[in-house]
Write a structure and sequence with these properties.
The protein is of the alpha+beta class and 574 residues long. The chain is 50% helix and 18% strand. It has 17 helices and 17 strands. The strands form four sheets. It has a six-stranded antiparallel β-sheet. A six-stranded mixed β-sheet has the order 8-14-15-3-16-17, with helices on both faces. The protein is elongated.
């Protein structure tokens, strides 16, 4: 197993705060059973990471493995011969806000670090995990797109998407004109105000369009609710009062029954007890043997008389109970009718009254709303016009800087321009922006994605990234095929620009150019070893004499000469 160092960073999406080197890193890339790679643990560091090796050594395999970890389409053909499964794991030591948002949306916990893992089985099935949580390949790709951008012949560069060009131009303008930052904010606020006013005008216009049919409905319901005059909390109060009054009515009936029970044939119970006592008093024996019983009967009669005096059926006001029930039921019926709870009826009355008032004062309200919209439109158009002017200036500046870069990158016949056309107003203004290129004189300008050559496209992307450096660089960039068809001064120019870009970004570059390799902060050698029964790709970080010899090999081929070693020493960045 071979190891190396290099780095892939995640940039903060806030382009107004993206200056300076980003410390976010891809610490490790573990590869197992991918094509010619049996086991590989690559540890990456910051700066410009260069990978070199002989043709067929397996440089493209590394890109395939990296892309797999980032959510690229899987292919069972990537599995090493004789193996049932392949896997790739990418470990990051931190994450940015854009990735955090994706993790939050998918319920994935994180503590700054991030681990992406992908497996591929021989039957074609593929599985993915983020921080050991199973995820769909779609989610893995969403995260991967926020981490690394691969520039190769068949890769989908973000700048090839014309929808990114307006933002890229604005970020370039912000980096070169602090006034533009505040202007963009003011324009967005103005558009939001304008958009809200447009919604209000539409709502009013819709209301007025159906005002004739609505007026009668609103008048009836407003009159009905005003007559009812419901109060907040009234339903609960009435319900409690009704329950209490109903209980009182039941209690009165019970008390009446109790009073009746104390009577027999018109004689009260206490009188009956006294009669018993009177009878016993007629006993002739002296002393009367029932005198104690007689005393108890008189005591009992006295107690019963007292109880009878206290049990008096309460009268209930039937008319009052009826009125309470009538109002309670009326309030509940109104709530059902307007599909609100009873306590919201007062607000409903206010709402319908305002709607009715709007209809009654339609001309004045409509005029007021239109005047407000005209004022807000003027404010927005003022900001949008100023933004458009500054975009035109930024576009011309961007064009000049790109044209300065192109000749040294063997794109001297190419021409670049920023096409700005008008579009429907939005929070981004009134401009549609497309980066246009033509590679040969006499041919028309076309969007970037019309360029066919992989090396040509990669060098153009490099020029754009260098010019847009510190503005739109939110990802780690991987460059492949940059040196296709170039050598000498052009290759050196490519290396210089990669070196410049790597001051703020993490880069991984696969190259066949000695001049480009000389600018490496980290240099990795990819080699292939074969035995009687297997072939394996290895990657090692090389330094010192090993690095000089590798650059010399690129210069002179398999036979390293003293002259190529001497030249290699001059190419290595000090």
């Amino acid at each position: 197993m071979a190891t190396g160092t290099g780095c892939f960073c995640i940039k903060n999406l806030n382009f107004l705060n993206c200056f300076g080197y980003n410390s976010l890193m891809l610490n490790n890339l573990y590869i197992s059973n991918i094509v010619l790679i049996e086991k590989l643990n690559l540890q990456f560091g910051q700066g410009l990471n260069i990978m070199t090796g002989e043709t067929g050594a397996g440089k493209s395999i590394l890109l395939d493995a990296l892309a797999l970890a980032l959510g690229a389409r899987s292919d069972a053909g990537l599995i090493r011969a004789g193996c049932d499964m392949a896997s790739v794991t990418a470990e990051f030591d931190d994450i940015n806000n854009s990735v955090k948002n994706i993790l939050d949306e998918n319920g994935i916990e994180y503590d700054n670090g991030l681990i992406l893992r992908r497996t591929l089985q021989a039957d074609g099935k593929s599985r993915a995990w983020v921080n050991d949580i199973p995820v769909s390949i779609k989610v893995l790709k969403q995260i991967g797109d926020e981490l690394i951008e691969i520039h190769g012949q068949f890769e989908n560069h973000s700048l090839l998407d014309t929808t990114t060009h307006l933002t890229a131009l604005d970020e370039y303008a912000c980096a070169n004109n602090p006034e533009f930052v505040d202007l963009l904010k003011d324009m967005r606020v103005a558009y939001n105000d304008l958009h809200e006013s447009e919604k209000q005008l539409k709502q009013l216009q819709d209301l007025l369009d159906k005002s004739e049919s609505e007026r009668e409905f609103l008048e009836h319901n407003v009159s009905e609710l005003r007559s009812l005059n419901p109060q907040i909390g009234e339903e609960d109060e009435l319900a409690i009062k009704r329950a209490q009054m109903m209980d009182a009515e039941k209690n009165a009936a019970i008390l009446t029954d109790a009073v009746e029970a104390l009577k027999n044939n018109g004689q009260s119970l206490d009188e009956q007890i006294c009669s018993v006592a009177h009878v016993l008093e007629r006993i002739k024996t002296e002393p009367n043997p029932y005198s104690e019983c007689i005393d108890k009967l008189y005591d009992a009669a006295s107690m019963v008389a007292e109880v009878s005096e206290n049990i008096k059926p309460e009268s209930t006001d039937t008319d009052t109970l009826d009125s309470v029930e009538e109002r309670l039921f009326a309030i509940r019926a109104a709530a059902r009718k307007h599909r609100v709870i009873a306590d919201e009826l007062p607000n409903k009355l206010v709402e319908m009254s305002e709607q009715l008032n709007a209809i009654d004062n339609s001309d004045a309200e409509l005029k007021k709303c239109k005047n407000k919209l005209a004022e807000l439109s003027m404010v927005f158009n003022g900001f949008a016009g100023r933004v458009s002017d500054l975009r035109e200036q930024a576009a011309e500046s961007l064009r000049k800087q790109i044209l300065i870069e192109l000749p040294d990158l063997k794109l001297g016949s190419a021409d670049f321009m920023v096409d700005i056309t008008k579009c429907e107003p939005s929070a981004m203004g009134t401009d549609n922006v497309v980066f246009m290129i033509k590679t040969n004189p006499g041919t028309p300008f076309a969007p970037l994605h019309k360029i066919a050559s992989g090396g040509e496209l990669s060098r153009l992307m490099l020029a754009l990234r260098v010019v847009l450096n510190n503005t739109n660089n939110q990802k780690t960039f991987v460059f492949d095929e940059l040196d296709t068809g170039i050598s000498g001064a052009t290759a050196s120019a490519v290396g210089q620009r990669l070196d410049k870009l790597s001051k703020n970004e993490q880069l991984l570059v696969i190259t066949h150019s000695a001049q480009v390799a000389g600018y490496a902060d980290k240099h990795f050698k990819i080699s292939k070893q074969s035995s009687a029964d297997s072939t394996t790709t290895n990657v090692i970080e090389i330094t010192g004499d090993d690095r000089i010899n590798e650059i010399a090999r690129i210069i002179s081929g398999a036979q390293i000469t003293p002259e190529s070693i001497a030249t290699a020493k001059t190419l290595i960045k000090q």
